[in-house]
Amino acid sequence: MLSIAIGCDDAAIEMKNQILTFLQNKNITVVDYSCDQQREPTLYPDIAVQVAQTIKDGKHERGILICGTGIGMSISANKVLGIRAAQCHDPFSAQRARKSNNAQIICLGARVIGVELAKTLVDTWLDCDFDGGSSTEKVERISYYEQRQNL
């Protein structure tokens, strides 16, 4: 069964709660790493890296990160070696994030899109798998440059 990590900052708690319920109603296992689930105040980069690390470690297959714009979460999650987090605000981007870029994490902006669009984006992203093909070489090149930075 698919296991998803979800995380948000204080700007996105309402959207996160609605997406969490949406996923649970689809019988998808979701673990919440959001700021409202932490014992002490936590900044969004901490949440993004925590979610990304759980995916890298194999605890979850995919992750959803939500902040005001999705930008900060995406930048932060992409600092974890081997993680590809994509900020998406339309269905085509959500589809291509998976099919072309094999993104394990989708990042959404609660101040940029509405909840119903967010649900559509999550559904689109979850329904897609990496196509491989001509995209394989490109994703491998991303990994190549990522590894070079860590020498």
Low-confidence stretches: none
User: Which H/E pattern describes the elements?
Assistant: EHEHEHEHEHH
Report mean pLDDT, rounded to a whole number. 94
Number of helices: 6
* Class based on secondary structure composition and strand pairing: alpha/beta
What's the alpha carbon Rg, rounded to whole Å? 14 Å
Estimate the global geometry from the Cα principal axes.
globular
CATH superfamily: Sugar-phosphate isomerase, RpiB/LacA/LacB
User: So what's the CATH class?
Assistant: Alpha Beta
Task: Give the strand order of the largest sheet, numbering strands 1, 2, ... along the chain.
Answer: 2-1-3-5-4
Taken together, the total number of domains comes to 1
CATH architecture identity: 3-Layer(aba) Sandwich
Number of strands: 5
> How would you sum up the major sheet?
5 strands, parallel
Name the beta content range. 15-25%
- Whole-Å distance between the termini? 36 Å
Residues in helices, as a percent range: 40-55%
